[in-house]
Amino acid sequence: MDHCCRRALFRVSQARCCAFPAAYFLDIPPMGDPEAKRDARKKLSKSVDPRVQEERRAKDRVRKAKRRGVAEMLQALPDGLADNARTSDGDYKSGICEACQGLGLKPSQQALEINSPTQGLGMDAPTSADDSLADKLRNVRRKCHTWSYADDWGSEQRWRKAFHDELRQVEELGTEETREVLATLHNHCAEGRQMICDLKNAGSMPADVCSDADLVRDLVLQTMDLYARILSETTFIEVRLLEEHNFCAE
Fold this sequence. Notes:
By secondary structure, this protein is an all-alpha fold. Helices cover 70% and strands 0% of the residues.
């Protein structure tokens, strides 16, 4: 911007300021003034139609109920799963959201069996061939938490250097130790492929979950995210092992 344009803009801003008396600016409350904010909220609430306010509150209650329903269905955190599966009264949660209950929907028999105390929520809980997507996702997520090297290696951009440094340190210990580490990495890839198959084979959902599009969408997105993380780490190690094999063959 040249000098003439800057001078013109400065004159325009001066003219605008002079158009208002000084007392006008003195009456403006400072930004962030709590009293001014409270007054503005009161004026806004009075101007809104009560029917519109009630409709907004109803939508907000439905959104919160759906989020609680997703948390109850997945129980995704690896720690404290058994405590999260109980209500404040000590009863087991049914796994359906309050929005579904308001519509008169009841949990299917499969959903009741998944959330029953006999199924167990520990690390060694048995899995059956007809596990639902939510149950399979919960089990695979627990396995991935102890399986993944990502916590030690950091972001994907650092994986190559971390893998190379650790393998070279092992090679300095001797050939036998190097073979054991390579065998462990092969088993690691096999476990990753098994978890990928578990996610691919899990497709059933309880009827109460299928009736809610938001719950279905959330389950699918979380499954795809976990699938991508496991596949990324598995293929990375497989490629590195193949490179090491070709290097040793030469």
